[in-house]
Structures are given as C-alpha cells and as structure tokens.
Amino acid sequence: MTELGRLVYDEGLTAYDFGPGHPLAPIRVRLTVALTRELGLIRDGERERSDEHVVALDGCGLEGLTMVPAPRASDDVLATIHDHAYIEAVQRASADPRLIDVTFGLGTPDNPTFAGMHEAAARVVGASIEAARSVWEGTSLHAANIAGGLHHAMPAMASGFCVYNDPAAAIRWLLDAGCPRVAYIDLDVHHGDGVQEIFYDDPRVLTISLHESPRTLFPYRTGFPSETGGPGAEGTAVNIALPRGTGDEGWLRAFHAMVPALVEAFQPAVIVSQHGCDSHRLDPLAHLNLSIDAQRAAAAAVHELSHRVAEGRWVVTGGGGYALVDVVPRIWSHLLAIVGGQAIRPETTTPLAWRQFVADECGRSAPEAMTDGAHASYAEWSAGYDPADPVDRAIRATRRAVFPAHGLDPD
Fold first, then answer.
1. Residue 59 domain-assigned?
2. How many domains does the chain have?
3. How far apart (Å, rounded) are the C-alpha atoms in residues 97 and 117?
4. In 247-365, at which residue ranges do the beta strands (DSSP E only) sit?
5. Over 50: is that where the pLDDT of 47 sits?
6. What is the helix (H) or strand (E) element at residue 279, kind and residue range?
7. pTM above 0.90, yes or no
8. Containing H/E element for 5?
9. Number of other CB atoms surrounding residue 219 within 10 Å
10. pLDDT over threshold 50, residue 48
C-alpha cells in the first residue's frame, strides 16, 4: 500500500554542523521535527493522534507522515554529481579539519571544514535520494528530507554552506531510474545555481528558481532571466530575479505568473521542490519581505501542482533559513503537514511542550502562533501588467525569456 507522506529523518542528519556561530545551525532542523511531532503530524506511535490542528487537503485522508531513517550515500552515488577529486578533498578535510583547500571551496567562512563532514554531507544526500526512491518506486506519494536542499554545491566545489548537492543527486537518481522528466522548483531566496549548473544542458530537467535578484544577494553572478538553458535545452532554466524588498503580493504574483504554466507545459513525471524559507522578512541574511502565510500558500500550490501534472509524485527538501526559532520550524512544519496530506489551521497556536523545548534548547521564548496572520493575497498576471512596478518588470523579463520555448504566450 502506498503511503501518502514520508519524512526521511534521523538525528544523524544534524551532524551536518559547521560549528558555533555559523548561520546554518542544525538546531533549526531539530526544532522543526519537534514541532511537527508535537502537532501530531508524525505517525510514530509516540503520542495519541489528534486532528484538532489540521484539516485534510482535497483528495487526501488525515494520514500524517511516516518517518524513516536516512541512509548515507555511497561515494559512487556522490560521483554521479561530483568530481572524484572533489569527493577525495572532502574526505581528507573530514578526516583532518585542519586541512584547508580553497581550490575546492573548503575551509572558507561559508564552508569551514569539520570532523566527519564527508559522512554528514553524504547522509543528507542519501536522505534526499531515499525520498526520491520512495516516490518513484511507489512506496510513498510524497516524501521529504527537511535537512536537505543544499542547492549551491557545484560538481567540484563547496559553496554557500553546501558541500554535496542533494537535490541534484535526487534528480540524477530519478533520471537514472527511468524517470523521463523532472521539474525542479526552488523557492529559496538565493538562486539555485548548483542545480541549474548541473542540469543546464539536460532537456529532461526543468529548473525554476524564484529568488532575490543576484544584483543584491549571493550568488551574485548567476540567476538572471537571460540564463535559459544550454544547446538543446533552451527554456529549461528559468530564473525569476525579484527586487529587494519584494513582499507577499509580489512574490506570489511572480510564482503564479510563472510556475504553474511552465510545469504544465513541461509535463514532468516527478516534481522536486526546495523550500528555503530565508525569504521571510525576519531572515538576517536576505532582503525579501515575506510572511509565513505566503510560504505556506506556495507549498500548498506546489502540492496541488504535483497532483495536477505528476500524479502526485512530489519530492521535497528544505533549504536556507536563518531565523532559526521564529521562522524556520513554523514554515517547515506547515510544509511537512502538506506533504502528509494535511494543512495546519492558520489560527493554531504552537504547542506548549514545543515552546518549553525551545526554552530548554535555546534559552529563549518561542512564537505562540503558527502563522504571521497575513492574508497572502496577490493579483493574477491576467489582471494586467504595470510597467512602473519592478516586480512586474522582473516577471515579464523571465516570461519573455522562456515562455516562447514552451509554446506559451509571454504577455
């Protein structure tokens, strides 16, 4: 029998840890899983199930998430994405963190070396591949690796807190397993440059990245509308570069003006999505102005799209997000609820036991509401183009760059 939702997780995934003071702190993953469990969304038998906080999504029962452990990817699997010389460099630094090799991006402030780095990063990859395997082989309709989404890692270089590129490895596994087409949707505030680079010339993979403009945010030199795919794959790289300060209305308008039409035209057999939540207005490393409610709405839209075009086959990863207590656990709990066929009621309060866990682990208070109380409304693109609006200009630039390649009207 096919499960509705699966979460690939165990405490081994929190070993991906660059050390004290680094923004990518594993506590955000632990807090997310703790909140998801306290809300009764994980079917692990540890507490009596309650549905008071959730409602079933259309066509879904109140099943919740089955949790399974994360395997570690082998070196051969890593080599489907990364150069052997790079893997060996990571292994050397993992064995002796005093070794710094900036040629491979190792030992930089963004990517400091740490003991066990290779094993920890390989486990993140293994978790995303296990999620992909679960979906492709029909064990689960949806599957998530919330510790994944390390989309900046390049074939021969660590970049942007990312050692190995787990979304790319999951996509590669799907292709090698016979999946004819994969759509990758990246909602992180930073451009999904590593995944785009790896599949830039592959017409079987559509990469869509909705991000803050690289004119104002890392990775700076990539993520412009003009990047549309290599020879024979024209139109399969899609970049929606939004201006600094974009809020819910503009971000959701951009999402709906681009993503559904392109994915429907591409007709993937599986959707893989990356849900970095660093576009939230409280995130310390970026400059967009989103609410939890907008991210929740986008996750629901991707879920609906997976059922409309891919028979529900949906592989989910986390990503960035550096408001470790106030934002990440809440957004990702909403996401995981949707993976499990549910939606957390917007008026839900965070469980008291979770707030106590935050106090014990972080020495601070936790938010009491599960959303920001925002409306997360937007105007459809069909309502008309405003040339004075920088968000509309960004949307139009991308539509004109890629829509014709898919037989779509850019205007």
1. yes
2. 1
3. 9
4. 270-274, 314-317, 342-344
5. no
6. none
7. yes
8. strand 3-8
9. 16
10. no
CB atoms within 10 A of CB 91: 14
- 162 vs 3, 11, 47, 108, 314, CA distance in Å? 30, 19, 35, 12, 23
Rounded alpha-carbon distances, angstroms, from residue 173 to 135, 163, 374, 379:
12, 18, 38, 38
Report, as an integer, the average pLDDT of 348-359: 98
- On whether residue 312 sits in a domain, the answer given is yes
Q: Residue 356, CB half-sphere, CA atoms under 13 Å: how many?
A: 4
Q: Where are the alpha helices (DSSP H) in 12-74?
A: 27-38
Note the pLDDT tens digit of each residue in 311-338. 999 999 999 999 999 999 999 999 999 9
Expressed as residue numbers, the domain containing 172 is: 3-72+124-406
234, 405 in Cβ contact below 8 A? yes
Q: Which of 163, 195, 165 has the alpha carbon at shortest distance from 182?
A: 195
Radius of gyration, alpha carbons of the chain:
20
Answer whether residue 365 is part of any domain: yes
In the structure encoding, which two tokens stand for residue 76, read together? Answer: 């051969």
Q: 3-class SS at 308?
A: helix
Read off the CATH number of the domain in which 274 is found.
3.40.800.20
Rounded to a whole number of angstroms, the distance between the first and last alpha carbons of the chain is 45
Instruction: Say if CB 317 and CB 146 are below 8 A apart.
Output: yes
Q: Are 202 and 81 a contacting pair, CB within 8 Å?
A: no
- pLDDT for 32 equals 98
- Please identify which residue in the block is written with the tokens 């024209």: 234
